[in-house]
Design brief:
This protein is α+β, with helices and mostly antiparallel strands and 350 residues long. α2 packs antiparallel against α8 and α6 packs across α9. A twelve-stranded mixed sheet has the order 1-2-3-4-5-12-6-11-10-9-8-7, with helices on both faces. It has two domains: 179 residues, Gcn5-related N-acetyltransferase (GNAT) (Aminopeptidase, 3-Layer(aba) Sandwich), CATH 3.40.630; 161 residues, Gcn5-related N-acetyltransferase (GNAT) (Aminopeptidase), CATH 3.40.630.
C-alpha cells in the first residue's frame, strides 16, 4: 500500500468524496479550506491511499501551518470544531497514521493534530502513540421531531421562558450574508470578545467564509428597533446546520435575543429539511457556556483532540496563548487593540 498527497482545493476528487461520504462535514469542504488559505496562508493537503488515476476512496485532510512564532505543524483542521478522517477501513487509517508518524520526523514538523468525532481514530491508534491534546464537549440536536416537541424538550426556565420574553420584546430579525449584516455581526463580535478579554477573529476571515461558502453560511441579527443587540453565524452542509459563532450586546441580554435567534435558526433549518443541529465544541472548563448548551441538548458527547508526538510539556499555540497572554496583557487591552492583536496573531495559533 502507498500513500499519496493531493491538494484538495484543486483535485476535484476531494469535493466528490466529501459530497458522498457520510462522515464529512462543512469543515471538510473546499470552501472552508479556501477560506483558511485566503485568510491565514495555510496550505491544505490530503493524505490518501487512492492512486492519482483512481476514484478517491479515503482521505485525511490537514493544513500545513508554517509560523515563525509557533513553529511548523500539521493540523486537521485549524479553527474547525471537528474533522473526521474520511476512512471506511481502520486498517487503511492505521497504515496512514504510521506513515505520517514517520514522515513527521523527516519534514521537521513540531507535531500533527487530528480532531475526530468518532472513536475509530482512537482504535486505529492502538499503541497509544498519540496523546490527548484537548478535551471538549460536543452538543448536537436531532431535528427529526416536530417543532413543538423540540420546544418542549428545552429547559423551561433558561430557554422556553427566555424565548417568550424575546417574543414579547418585539425583536426584529434580519438574515443573510450582506455586507451590512456582516458589519453589524462583527461589531457585536468584537464587543463580546472584549468582554472575555480575547482578541476577535480577523474581519477578513468572515468575509472570506461568506465568499467561499456562499449559500452555506447565514448571519442572523436581532434588532431592538434599529439597534443590533445579538447575532449568530451558522454554516450548513447537506442536512446539518452548525452554530459556529454567537455574540451580543450585554446591555440587552435580559431580552433573550441570542436564544431567540438560535430557536429561529433551528426552526428554519428543520423546515428547510435539515435533520441535525450542531452547537459546536465547548471547552470543559467553560462552565457557563456548557450550562447554556446543556439547556438545549442535555447529553453532549466527548470530543477529544489527538496529537503526535506524545510530549506532556508541549503546549499547543492556543493553550500557550491562554496561559501566557490572556491572563496578563489581554485583560488590560481596549477593544481596538484587541482587534489589532487578533489580526496579527491568529494565523499563528491555528
Amino acid at each position: 500500500m502507498s500513500i499519496y498527497q493531493i491538494d484538495p482545493t484543486k483535485d476535484l476528487r476531494w469535493g466528490e468524496l466529501v459530497e458522498r461520504h457520510p462522515r464529512a462535514s462543512v469543515f471538510h469542504t473546499v470552501g472552508w479550506l479556501q477560506a483558511l488559505r485566503r485568510t491565514y496562508g495555510y496550505e491544505p493537503v490530503v493524505f490518501t491511499t487512492s492512486p492519482p488515476t483512481s476514484e478517491l476512496r479515503d482521505g485525511l485532510v490537514f493544513c500545513r501551518i508554517k509560523s515563525w512564532l509557533t513553529g511548523r505543524r500539521l493540523v486537521s483542521l485549524p479553527f474547525a470544531d471537528h474533522c473526521e478522517p474520511l476512512f471506511d477501513s481502520n486498517e487503511d487509517l492505521h497504515f496512514l497514521i504510521h506513515y505520517l508518524q514517520g514522515a513527521l520526523q523527516h519534514q521537521n514538523w513540531r507535531y500533527l493534530e487530528v480532531r475526530p468525532v468518532n472513536r475509530d481514530f482512537e482504535q486505529a491508534n492502538d499503541k497509544g502513540d498519540f496523546s490527548v491534546s484537548a478535551k471538549y464537549f460536543l452538543h448536537t440536536l436531532s431535528l427529526l421531531p416536530r417543532l413543538d416537541e423540540l420546544f418542549k424538550g428545552f429547559d423551561k426556565d433558561c430557554v422556553q421562558r427566555r424565548l417568550r420574553r424575546a417574543e414579547r420584546a418585539g425583536l426584529v430579525e434580519k438574515c443573510g450574508s450582506s455586507e451590512d449584516l456582516l458589519r453589524d455581526f462583527y461589531t457585536l463580535f468584537v464587543k463580546t470578545r472584549g468582554r472575555h478579554h480575547v482578541p476577535p477573529t480577523p474581519f477578513k476571515w468572515f468575509r472570506n467564509l461568506i465568499h467561499c461558502l456562499e449559500k452555506g453560511l447565514e448571519i442572523r441579527v436581532a434588532y431592538q428597533q434599529e439597534t443590533p443587540i445579538a447575532a449568530i453565524l451558522t454554516l450548513r452542509f447537506r442536512d446539518v446546520v452548525h452554530f459556529k459563532y454567537g455574540c451580543s450586546d450585554a446591555r440587552f441580554n435580559r431580552l433573550g435575543a441570542t436564544p431567540w435567534l438560535l430557536w429561529r435558526a433551528i426552526a428554519a433549518a428543520r423546515l428547510a429539511g435539515a435533520t441535525g443541529f450542531d452547537f459546536g465544541r465547548t471547552d470543559e472548563s467553560n462552565k457557563g457556556l456548557l450550562a447554556f448548551k446543556n439547556h438545549w441538548s442535555p447529553q453532549p458527547r466527548r470530543l477529544i483532540y489527538w496529537r503526535f508526538p506524545d510530549n506532556p510539556f508541549l503546549l499547543s499555540p492556543a493553550q500557550s496563548w491562554n496561559l501566557k497572554l490572556a491572563k496578563r496583557a489581554l485583560s488590560f487591552m481596549p477593544n481596538t487593540l484587541l482587534r489589532i492583536t487578533g489580526k496579527l496573531f491568529y494565523r499563528h495559533i491555528g
